[in-house]
Amino acid sequence: MNSKKKYTDFIKSEAKRLGFLSCGISKAGFLEKEAPRLEKWLNENKNGQMQYMENHFDKRLDPTLLVDGAKSVISLLLNYYPDATQVDDSYKISKYAYGQDYHFVIKHRLKELLYSMQETIGGVGGRAFVDSAPVLDKAWAAKSGLGWMGKHSNLLSKQVGSFFFIAELIVDIELEYDTATTDHCGTCTACIDACPTQAIVEPYVVDGSKCISYFTIELKDNLPDSMKGKFDDWAFGCDVCQDVCPWNRFSKSHNEPLFNPHPDLLSMTKKDWEEITEDTFRAVFKNSAVKRTKFQGLNRNINFLKE
């Protein structure tokens, strides 16, 4: 067995041991297909006030500018699909935010994987990324065969749907590379039809500035009156395009205790949300991604929904 195959097999079995859903590997280099797409999307201001998406344009498209001597991008998926969801009479938060902030949970595992590689393979240089750096993670995951980009622009897998996090290790060793899979959206337009704010402006293109997740998490200004009554009770993020996707009938519950919600979260009613105090907010969302909105931001969203 050649060393590339041996190292690749080791990395994939180690990723499985660490609880990752799947692992795919692609050759690091310039993302030619993504470049014009990203440029057009930014030029049309589909990033809204997410100015950070305009930064590091070149690095976003070429991981060799992020990591010296980068040769391989190892893409990893981690399941977050819960076994129970919020009660019906509630303001909703995205399922990915039910438990502890995924950045910390995944970063720890990525570092462990990199450490294992260094122990077993030798001098491996690289960096771990969890959506907080200029890396087009969905593009890399698709390139490495972990799924295809759905019409809602999320990565989709025939086996497990789309309720998973994507992360990468960009490393300076050559490995065996996977090939991209094919698109299985067909003629389905469920996500486009269901989007409450018509943010999916055409198949495979989401106008970020119209997305409920953008309004409830990223936008720091007042929420626009033109969006009144269109948020479908979402107070943090939105899962509509994923909830209606036929491929998500194959989602299976995660087995990561850190992603389990605070015991009070799922039973909170609209009344509970409307009366939430800063102390309750801190207790329920202690290590959650919901802290990104801060107490004031969540309150703004809830007041907007109840008006």
Describe the structure.
- This protein is 32% helix and 13% strand.
- With 307 residues, the chain is of the alpha+beta class.
- It folds into 2 domains: 161 residues, NADH Oxidase (3-Layer(aba) Sandwich); 108 residues, no CATH class.
- Strand 8 and strand 9 form a beta hairpin.
- Helix 1 packs antiparallel against helix 4.
- The longest helix is centred in the middle third of the chain and has 20 residues.
Key features of this structure:
2 domains, 307 residues, 10 strands, four-stranded antiparallel sheet
- Let me know the largest β-sheet: 4 strands, antiparallel
Q: Kindly identify the CATH topology of the largest domain.
A: NADH Oxidase
CATH architecture descriptor name of the largest domain = 3-Layer(aba) Sandwich
Indicate the overall shape: globular
Name the beta content range: 5-15%
Uncertain residue ranges: none
Strand order of the largest sheet: 1-2-7-4
Q: Give the total of domains.
A: 2
Secondary-structure-derived class: alpha+beta
Question: At the first level of CATH, what is the class of the largest domain?
Answer: Alpha Beta
Q: Would you tell me the overall average pLDDT? A: 93
Helix content: 25-40%
What is Rg?
20 Å
User: What's the total count of β strands?
Assistant: 10
The total count of helices amounts to 11
What is the element string, with H for helices and E for strands? Answer: HEHHEEHEHEEEHEEHEHHHH
Distance between the termini: 65 Å
